[in-house]
């Protein structure tokens, strides 16, 4: 069973690493793959290149032997659609491996805006991360129907099948924002408490987010 954490990682920070670590401990993933988006489909194009964002991911996970970078979206032309990445993953891993796409509850609430969103569970499970003691999650009718059809409360349901399940998982996430980090770097505010030192050195070396 593997976890996939996608995103722009602009830049990657301790919140991303904390999330991956906690989910790996709780759900016993063999590995967690970080998958940087080259051209985000639903966000503005970052002003830092995909290659630089990928370099920062590699530096951030260097001390985590069970974390990997998955660069397939950087090697593909056009928008970085999750469905294309999942199809490619299935071709690589076969149809037996349990693939869990890790996603925050806010992003999951907008899943119906994703390209070919209603096909995604044909290739993976969703692990939807919510904060403990947060208010009950509310979805629109499309997402509500998807949850009712596919939700499970049992980890074994993810382990024993390759795709098709939705698991809600509470994680005490760190309150760290890439947007705030970029603003802090631009204003020369210290970010050493929210990012790995390797990544900070890379940002300084390449004068990013100035």
Automatic annotation (TrEMBL):
<dbReference type="GO" id="GO:0009435">
    <property type="term" value="P:NAD+ biosynthetic process"/>
</dbReference>
<protein>
    <recommendedName>
        <fullName>Probable nicotinate-nucleotide adenylyltransferase</fullName>
        <ecNumber>2.7.7.18</ecNumber>
    </recommendedName>
</protein>
<keyword id="KW-0067">ATP-binding</keyword>
<dbReference type="GO" id="GO:0005524">
    <property type="term" value="F:ATP binding"/>
</dbReference>
<keyword id="KW-0548">Nucleotidyltransferase</keyword>
<dbReference type="InterPro" id="IPR005248">
    <property type="entry name" value="NadD/NMNAT"/>
</dbReference>
<comment type="function">
    <text>Catalyzes the reversible adenylation of nicotinate mononucleotide (NaMN) to nicotinic acid adenine dinucleotide (NaAD).</text>
</comment>
<comment type="similarity">
    <text>Belongs to the NadD family.</text>
</comment>
<keyword id="KW-0808">Transferase</keyword>
<dbReference type="InterPro" id="IPR014729">
    <property type="entry name" value="Rossmann-like_a/b/a_fold"/>
</dbReference>
<keyword id="KW-0547">Nucleotide-binding</keyword>
<comment type="pathway">
    <text>Cofactor biosynthesis; NAD(+) biosynthesis; deamido-NAD(+) from nicotinate D-ribonucleotide: step 1/1.</text>
</comment>
<feature type="domain" description="Cytidyltransferase-like">
    <location>
        <begin position="4"/>
        <end position="184"/>
    </location>
</feature>
<dbReference type="Pfam" id="PF01467">
    <property type="entry name" value="CTP_transf_like"/>
</dbReference>
<dbReference type="GO" id="GO:0004515">
    <property type="term" value="F:nicotinate-nucleotide adenylyltransferase activity"/>
</dbReference>
<keyword id="KW-0662">Pyridine nucleotide biosynthesis</keyword>
<dbReference type="InterPro" id="IPR004821">
    <property type="entry name" value="Cyt_trans-like"/>
</dbReference>
<keyword id="KW-0520">NAD</keyword>
């Amino acid at each position: 069973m593997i976890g996939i954490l996608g995103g722009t990682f602009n830049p990657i920070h301790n919140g991303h690493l904390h999330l991956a670590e906690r989910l790996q401990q709780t759900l016993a993933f063999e590995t967690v793959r970080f998958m940087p988006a080259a051209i985000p489909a639903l966000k503005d194009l970052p002003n830092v290149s995909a290659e630089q964002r990928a370099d920062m991911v590699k530096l951030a996970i260097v001390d985590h032997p069970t974390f990997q970078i998955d660069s397939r979206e950087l090697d593909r032309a056009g928008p970085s659609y999750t469905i294309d990445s999942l199809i490619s993953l299935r071709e690589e891993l076969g149809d037996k491996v349990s693939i869990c796409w890790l996603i925050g509850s806010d992003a999951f609430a907008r899943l119906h805006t994703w390209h070919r969103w209603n096909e995604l569970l044909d290739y993976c499970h969703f692990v939807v991360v919510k904060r403990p003691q947060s208010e009950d999650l509310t979805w629109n009718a499309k997402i509500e129907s998807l949850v009712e059809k596919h939700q499970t409360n049992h980890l074994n349901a993810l382990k024993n099948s390759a795709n098709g399940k939705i698991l809600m998982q509470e994680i005490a996430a760190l309150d760290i924002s890439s947007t705030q980090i970029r603003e802090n770097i631009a204003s020369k505010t210290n970010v050493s408490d929210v990012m790995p030192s390797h990544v900070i050195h890379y940002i300084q070396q390449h004068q990013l987010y100035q």
